[in-house]
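Thread: "does anyone have the structure for this chain?"

Original post by V.I.:
We have the sequence but no experimental structure in hand. Need at least a predicted one for the grant figures.
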Amino acid sequence: MLQKLLIKNYALIQELNINPSPNLNTITGETGAGKSIMLGAVGLLLGKRADTKVLYSSDTKCVVEGIFDIGEYNLNSFFESEDLDYDKECFIRREISASGKSRAFINDTPVTLDILKNLGNHLMDVHSQHETLLIGDQDFQLRIIDAYSGTIEALKNYQSAFSAYVKAKNSLQSFKESAAQMQQEKDFNQFLFDELDKAQIKNGEQEELEEKLEVLENGELIKLKLTEAYQLVDGQELAAIHNLHQATESLKAIQSYGKNFQELSERLNSSFIEIQDIAKELEITANEFEHQPEELQQTQERLSLIYSLQQKHHVDSVEDLLKIKTDLEDKLLAVQDAEGSELKLQKAVDEAYAETDKKAKEISKQRIKHFEKLENELRALLAGLGMEDAVVKIDNKAKPHDKSGIDDIKILFSANKGVAPQNLKNVASGGEFSRLMFAIKYIMADKIAMPTIIFDEIDTGISGEVAIKMVNMMQKMAENHQVITISHLPQIAAKGHQHYFVYKDNSADKSVSKIKLLDENERSLEIAKMIGGENPSESAIQSAKELLGL
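Reply from O.Q.:
Generated one for you, tokens below.
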């Protein structure tokens, strides 16, 4: 529960500090004094977004701090999962800088707004006037049913199963579309594959062929130059090898006259031997080399086929063509295996559906089991709130599986005798909405572990004896929950364990909202003003004392 709330530099609030009672707290004040502004600040603690417009002073950051006693609410696992330090006294702080930057802290550890919001869902239930309007929303009504029937956890399990079913169904549908597309392309893919398979191309083949083609295209020149080279080296009387032979003989004749002559002789002799070997190679190569027009044509045709295939498939290498061939083969195999794969996927869909349907039916059974009990409890509470003829009926029709199950649930309502229950948004007035919502909150208080419940003018449209009955119910709720209620009714204001008064201070250049915990005398006067106006009569003062039990 909330032990302390500090608000600085927020909207009309310069600084506000309260320590609410663990039981029933009432907050009153004139319209526009800033009561609901407090709720906006509390919303920051619960993870709601804000901007620099909330700053009272643009040159100072906004700070909202709350200290909560969470010792009895089994939140250890939440703190552990989020890697946060746990203490039974939880400190939450939210800061909004003048530049608009927002920071949030739990026990002095920086956290994201999502983490803050998740924790806030365990700490507070803030009922605003907007939420009263939500009662006409079907999803909101379903959440009420699930909270009352205890199916919230079962619904989470169902939603996991439903998500798996949707995923399996989407996978099957995607496969069917892909398989249909592959089937349409099968003949064309088969043609492309056969064409590549028939070509029997190999890695590195293109480079080899291009090199071979260059030789074949220049065959006559190569033959001529090989012959010329041989003739110059050893094929004629004055060839190079003849002169080299004479030179080696000359050096041999003088090699005994000096070491350097011997070295020159050996080097020249070695070169002569190498030239002789080259001459033989030239003779053999020149004699064997033949111009081959047929092989040239075959090589040109082979390369032309490879170039044509590359152009057709928009690639520039044999390696890319081979990869395309492999991909085509995979597609053709997939078409062959499509029927078996589809059967497997269909089986997965059927199994996921069966699990989803089973869980949906279990939830539906549990929900329906609690319809009558909830209807009776609401009727009894509404009768106590001055709506003796009110009828609440929960209508349910089957629907296809979706994230909420198979129940199309609507809460039908009639406030008048003899009028059939209808959709809430069609039949309820503001005061009737407020009483119905309060009755729901009263029932739900013990169904959902919620330390603090805040009501923002839930007493709209009611007065007199009904207000007294409503606040008596609030007192009952406050036995197990901390209740904070913002009200304009003296009957409700008088029954709080603590009474806070919100007022606007206009003494400075800029208006400031302030809050004050009233003592017994201040409280008596404030309630008298709520009854009789700014200058209450003696009878109003006496009525206030009676309400306070003084």
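V.I.: this helps a lot. The chain has a mean pLDDT of 87.
O.Q.: and The CA atoms of residues 385 and 469 lie 6 Å apart.
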